[in-house]
Amino acid sequence: MMSLSKQKADFGGRQYFLDWLRVLAFAYLVLFHTGMMFVDWGFHIESGHNSEFLKSIMMLTTTWRLDLLFLVSGVAISFMVTKMSINAFLGQRIIKLLIPLLFACAVVIAPQPYFEAIQKGLIDINYFDFWPSMYFDFTWLDGMMTPWPTYNHMWYVLYLFMYTILLIPLFLYINSDVGKKYLLALEEWLTKGARILWAPLSIYILAYLYTGHNNITHAVWDDWFGHFIYAYILILGIIFVRMPRCWQAFENIRLISLILAFASYGILLIKYNLHTPLDTIPWDLVEMIIKWSWVATLIGYARKYLNFTNPPLKYLNGIVYPFFILHQSVTIIIGYHIIQWGLHWVIEFTLIAIGTYAVSILLIEIIIKRINVLRLVFGLKLIKKEPDFALKPGSSS
What we know:
Layout: H1 4-11, H2 16-35, H3 52-61, H4 65-83, H5 86-108, H6 111-119, H7 127-133, H8 155-166, H9 168-174, H10 177-190, H11 195-211, H12 224-240, H13 245-252, H14 254-273, H15 283-305, H16 311-338, H17 345-366, H18 372-377
Helix pairs in contact: 2-4, 2-15, 2-16, 2-17, 3-14, 4-12, 5-8, 6-16, 11-12, 11-15, 13-15, 14-15, 16-17
């Protein structure tokens, strides 16, 4: 195993801008999932509103927000496999990913199908009767988005766990001397000109051309395009962090990637908002360009302006995982009640989003952080009790 100083030399030190991207990407999930209640795309809870403004924004971010999360997760994984043996790494992944996933499926996610079924008039039962008597009977009612029990937003953790296991050979290779030499040569090639933009983008385009579609289902058994894309960008995160000059390359071409990002997004807006008859344009291919150009743009500008740390970042970085586990259930519970008030959709949206942030953080601070069992199932480090060395009365030193 390489020394700590050698690790720092290979990785270029802590990249704080990636921490900022991680925190901001997870925070944005609240806004996105709240927005899903106010557009006609189908969600567990629906407000009856259909905001074209929200749809235009969400149409952009839905193409790349998860790619960014997988890339940042790849960076974290790459660090971990230099600090521990493969067996220890697998044990850590079971504790940090599999246990929270199973707990979330059994407990945290249960309110989501419950309130969906209540709103759709499919059941009429108290939640505390629903959970023990119905939630675990593997039912998929007509009109429901998912069966129960289900993993819903925790598909991200499920996919991450699966890819982690499958990529063990890659970890062994990039930790080897041969792998390091290959990455050094790849870094030299990628960091010239604008290759960091168009080389990864070409793989996105080839994947689309091979499959003929860009459909992502988040269902394990039939999500082959999704598996390829998410595993691919996870691998990019794993290897980019071993090639620290790549981050500078993103910063250097940030204006080019920004122009491409806005140009491709503009084409998409023209198609959806102006209802053009230009059926000959491969719109799904445009979405592939949006995916990588926006990820590259965000990395480039974050590297330029957010490569620092401070107390808020340290705090948010520490709670982002349990926040992710909680957020969608909190959003749905709050949303179910607020949309019944009949307020303007902007007010409803604002109250639901703020309520989700506040309630999730309060639950983490007041309950989850204080109980070791809950820390375990929400992916936090356990609190180790200090041994009591105080001398009992009458004992001698």
